[in-house]
Design goal:
Blueprint: E1 3-6, E2 10-16, H1 19-24, E3 32-34, H2 37-44, E4 49-55, H3 57-67, E5 72-75, H4 82-93, E6 97-98, E7 110-116, E8 122-127, H5 141-146, E9 149-153, H6 162-172, E10 176-179, H7 183-188, H8 190-199, E11 203-207, H9 208-214, H10 220-230, E12 233-237, E13 243-247, E14 250-254, H11 268-281, H12 286-300
Parallel strand pairs: 1-5, 1-9, 2-7, 3-8, 5-6, 9-10, 10-11, 11-12
Antiparallel strand pairs: 2-4, 7-8, 12-13, 13-14
Helix pairs in contact: 3-11, 11-12
């Protein structure tokens, strides 16, 4: 297997909303907020659902990699309920091997409201459900060892139990990649993330705000310096400014695509990571890998949701 993704198995519920709804519910635009089931259902009750699909950051990346013809798999915890059934079916139909055997759980399958405002920004409200209870027993040691690389998401650190799954996967992996996921997520786990980035990961994906937050700077030049000192692979998306790969001492830049009909930013970072990792595991150059990531993210932001097909 080329890449094994491990992350939160979340059913995405996509809705178009006005900015006023975010204000009414004290939500910060373009971030992810964790809520309990009651608060989740309260917000959902007033919304019109556009689309429901198997989601979660790393799962979206695995689907993108599969679409590009790569042999990939995913581990994420779901319940043996209707949403769990839909989740497994959705991933399987996308040719992603699903390596978690669902069973009856106390908590339901996790769900994420993706709220799309008129400016195409997406704000997420997540009830993790059983997804947030993934633990080391759920990690298939054999699958980790047989994969060329594992890909993890920073969101896994938002609950206690998943850290044991995270650590077990890292201990058996041949190569490790991770996305920092979200600026607020970085703020919550800054010291842990910094340790991971410096000592346990081979490839790190972040957007500009996330990496600046991680190293407490407002200067992108300081980010470049940090990346060079890492002596690893730091891949940064910068929106309209394009993307940058800092690999050991080499800095490679890629421009963003222009004149796009941007509809929804959901999945932009996930599909960028898929495109870059596709290039990486298929021996494309760094520039070509950045270009493939840019191509994938440019396509997805011109559609509703995180699926290209």
């Amino acid at each position: 297997m080329k890449i094994l993704g491990i992350g939160n198995a979340i059913v995405d519920v996509i809705c178009k909303v006005e900015d006023s709804l975010l204000l009414e519910n004290n939500l910060t635009k373009s971030t992810m907020t964790l809520v309990n089931e009651t608060d989740f259902n309260k917000i959902l009750s007033s919304l019109k659902i556009e689309q429901t699909i198997a989601g979660g950051s790393v799962a979206n990346s695995m689907v993108g990699l599969s679409l590009l013809g790569n042999n990939v798999a995913f581990i994420g915890k779901i319940n043996k309920d209707s949403l769990g059934e839909k989740y497994e079916k959705s991933l399987t139909e996308e040719r992603v091997k699903y390596l978690y055997i669902k069973k009856e759980e106390v908590m339901p399958t996790g769900t994420c409201l993706i709220l799309i405002t008129p400016d195409s920004e997406r704000t997420m409200v997540t009830f993790l459900g059983v997804a947030g209870k993934i633990n080391k027993k759920d990690i298939d040691e054999k699958a980790v060892k047989e994969s060329e690389m594992i890909f993890l998401e920073g969101y896994l650190w938002d609950e206690g139990e998943p850290k044991s799954a995270f650590d077990k996967a890292l201990s058996f992996a041949n190569k490790t990649a991770m996305t920092l996921s979200d600026q607020f997520c970085v703020e919550r786990h800054k010291s842990s993330f910094l340790d991971l980035v410096k000592n346990k990961l081979d490839i790190v994906f972040a957007n500009e705000l996330e990496i600046k937050s991680l190293i407490n700077t407002s200067s992108f030049e300081e980010v470049i310096t940090f990346g060079k000192q890492l002596n690893k692979s730091l891949i940064i998306t910068r929106g309209e400014k394009g993307s940058v790969a800092i690999i050991k001492n080499e800095v490679t830049e890629c421009e963003s695509e222009k004149k796009l009909n941007i509809i929804d930013l959901t999945g932009a970072g996930d599909l960028f990571a898929a495109g870059f990792l596709h290039g990486h595991i298929n021996n494309l150059s760094i520039k070509e890998s950045l270009e493939k990531g840019t191509e994938m993210s440019s396509k997805i932001i011109q559609k509703i949701g995180a699926r290209l097909n």
